[in-house]
Structure prediction request, 756 residues.
Amino acid sequence: MDLNFTAEYQDFRAEVRGFLDAHKHEAPKMSNAGLRGKKRLKWQRILLEHGYAARTLPKQYGGFGAAPDALKQRIIAEEFSRAKVPGGLSGQGINMLVPTLLELGTEEQKQAYIAKTLSGEMIWCQGYSEPGAGSDLAALRTSAVVDGDDFVINGQKIWTSTANQADMIFCLVRTEPDAPKHHGISYLLFSMDTPGIEVRPLMTMTGRAEFNEVFFTDVRVPTSQIVGERGEGWMVANATLTHERGMLGDPDAALSRLQSIAEIMQNEHVDGKSLMDNAVYRDRLVALEAEVYAMKFNGMRLTTATSAKKSAGMAGMIVKLQGCELNHRLAELAIDVMGEYGILFEDSPFLRDDGMWQTLYMFDLGLIIGGGSAQIQKNIISERGLGMPREPKVNKA
Amino acid sequence: MYFGLSEDQTMLQDSVGRFLETASELELVRGFAEGDAALASNLQHGLMELGVPLVLVPEEYGGLGMGVLEAALIQEAMGRHVAPTSFTAAYAMAVIGLREAGSEQQKSDWLGQIAGGQTLMGVGVTEAIGGREGAGLTLDGDKLSGRASFVLGADLATHFMLTTGAELVIVARDATGLSETALTTIDKTRNVLNLDLDGVACEVLHGDGKTGVARMIDVGRVLLAADSLGAANMMLEKAVDYSKDREQFNRPIGSFQAVKHMCAEMAAKLEPCRSLVWYAAYAQDHVDDEAALVSCLAKSHLAEVGKYIARTSTEVHGGMGFTDLLGLHYWFKRIGANRQLLGGPEAVREEAAKLQGWA
Prediction:
């Protein structure tokens, strides 16, 4: 155990700070971090050039080409967060498609897509889930039938975030209807402008359309747009699912959430007494603080394991389940301590924090369900982590 | 930055664990719980050979000069094997008390004796956390009077380290005017007792007793958390093993999702606790301004997660978990005792709130 950084890393931290001092004025606002306006794209260009985005990706595909170093990644994240400056763009293209292409794409595919995706000019959406294929993703039915040099795609996807703004989709389709379900899937890349695609926004309980439904009617895609071989799409997709699970649980986000709640409790008053003076609220806050610390240190343990190129085993496997659950319970506490003010929403007078706590409370429930539901996570933890027996298959009569 | 154990630390924990696997196997623990005191002295002898009493004693007094993290790793192994030892009190809290509040002379006298095995100190600091039924000690010259309750590590103790709140004091177990009342608790692997003192001769530590007691409590809490970590980890492993073995409806019960999810939840709650305990222990020696806070957080959080795992593991074992035959209850009760000792979770969280100016 040594929480100090060696001279190399102290120098690196100074370098990051120097960069931020020099370029901070060019950064877009944190609240616009997800949007891809002119300023955001220019900022991404600056970050790519200095190695603060796509740091370890190969140079020939638009990355910075640095050797993987989990500590340096952490230092970058810490310094950007301290300076309240948005870091590199994220999203399903950058976080999931790019690693997949690097691993399994053809040279043409790498050339065509990676650099444009990293720069932010090409936005992707993920066509995985279907109305009948959620946790049992491999049951998907959207079909792709070969006709000449094209696949002809028919079917429907759901839970497709950013489909309304995406240029491209990476999509799972059934190409071999007679093969066992895991062996009949292929992984295709195509433009969202292809004729026959219809995107309908999907309103959720938060009152916003964070997702979409995507309908395919005789959508023609050249057969060369496949990643991996026909029927190998399940294996290709699993490479990206691993990336998604790593992406969702961020222990530092929970810590800043906890600090915001402590501020609410100190600043809000009922009958002249601060909410922090309520021993029951305070006890809940400290109980959650202990969990936030535990997840923070678990994250540091993962960083160390990653830099040593070792698997952290169970410590990594539980992050999605525990991290999402913890964030949800933090939002729950923020709402509870605010009493009746806790239900104010949208543009109501007397609204606190733009109503974000209710939105988070609802949206986090979506995160608990999405990206491998809590129940699927528990199956993975018990079967792969604890070595418990699989559920016996039900034989359909 | 390296957040993890060194090879030496892993080896230390493994060697104590290997020793306890046989020296503290269930039938021996059962014997101790039923009144056979021989186990405690056998264990004590083996631990001396491994150098365990020396871990926190500085090298200049003949010790190994290791940190609280090493002590926590040893304690975790003891929790794992529900070992009937006085480690928390005698070799951690008492040593910390002497290190913090002893004069040079006192350190060299007492730490040397502890390291050499001639002296073993039970510890009574409960009243510094909260006094009950008028318990508490007062000093008149060098004579100590009053009551110290829930004194820990008394099994083989030759002395006791007690507190008046402002001072740390040492009394000999056979001193005139000292009487003991054994308490019966759920946890028969470690004995606690009350001491009544009537003008008992004592040695007052010359340094700042108040700070000394606070540091003893911080370290004691980290170790109780580590003990629960080890005990809970064992209960999880036992539940998983049992579920693979036990068949109902012609299949191992571990293939039912209801049972799998209970085990997954135990693992998911427990794994981050390991990092919390490591950090809390490390902070005692290396992060002064966070040491007290993270000690409180580790203690209270392990109390909650420990309790959850104790009941859930017992449930996975079905009726067998409830029997004396299986012996699972020794872990259940050890975790239950750790939860209450040196402050229950709500009391400890309130201290954490105070440390941050929230209360």
About this structure: Chain A has three domains: 7-89, 124-230, 249-385. The radius of gyration of chain A is 23 Å. Residues 279-307 of chain A form the longest helix (29 residues). Chain A touches chain B through 51 residues (CB under 8 Å).
